[in-house]
Amino acid sequence: MTKKRRRTKSERIRRREKIISFICLFVICVIWSIPLLYMLGSSFKSDIDLQLHPEKLFPSSWDEWTLKHYTGFLVRDGKIDKMPIWMLNSLWSTAACILVTVLFDLITAYALVFLKFKGRNGIIKFLFLWMAVPGVIGTAPGFVIFSQIRNALQMNETATYLYIYFWLIVPSGTGIFNMLLMRNFFLSIPPDIVDSAKSDGAGHRVIFRRIVCPLARSTLLLIVLFTFTGSWNNLVWPQLLLSGEDSYWQTVTVALTGYTGGSGWGQVGVSMATGVFSLIPIIIVFVITQNKMIDGIASTGLKG
């Protein structure tokens, strides 16, 4: 009888904790959803409705619904505007950043886990320490080096474009967090698997390609998702590199700041529509990879 009462009491406590957790999550979701809903609703408002009813999430009447702001950044003066080019710039630079990140994380994490060399523990401690340093600290020195090299090389327009995007991609693709995430997963791989492969005569290249990489698929997908969202939404560094350049070279986020910097309610509507349009790739990627993302998070927490 006592055990039954204890079991009933513990079940009540767990049920109460679940209800509280659900309420907290619901409140957080509502708070985070309001800006997104406001941006979505404002993108369909007319200029007059934006001016008279800025506090409303959606247009005040059916007559105020319009697609004007979406056509405003896709077509201007009867011609296709720069938005498709900005999307292409963001897409190819994000894809290149993902490629650099995957190669860097796999190779570096493998070396720190499966290769024994002098100073390995010191490097790992330094990397953990470096994670505590805000990334914005390296922005000013990096931009100075970027400008000095560019002025010294005297490149043509095409070379300048590639040079700018090289500096945009490589620093973003060599972050420490994702690499340590991959290292954490490699530590969870049973040593017997690698040892048995070595006893069969497999070298590091075979172990890396046929054993380690296939096991790391879930974690790789998680890193790809992190890199995609981080690179796609990156603003400060691209804005520094692309300031004063041809507007056709801009990414979506940098171009969006140009809309928000304008005056008039028409610019507000266009900026909202641009923001909605720029979220579409992120939503698609998240919907496709959400299940694998959960598996990746679980796999990286097996061992510290």
TrEMBL record:
Membrane topology: Multi-pass membrane protein
Protein's name in the database: Carbohydrate ABC transporter permease
Gene Ontology CC terms, in alphabetical order: plasma membrane
Keywords: Cell membrane, Membrane, Transmembrane, Transmembrane helix, Transport
Organism encoding this protein: Candidatus Borkfalkia faecipullorum
Any GO BP annotation: transmembrane transport
ABC transmembrane type-1 domain mapped to chain residues: 87-289
Family: Belongs to the binding-protein-dependent transport system permease family.
Pfam families documented for this protein: BPD_transp_1
Cellular localization per UniProt: Cell membrane
Residues that span the membrane, as ranges: 20-40, 91-115, 127-149, 161-181, 215-232, 268-288
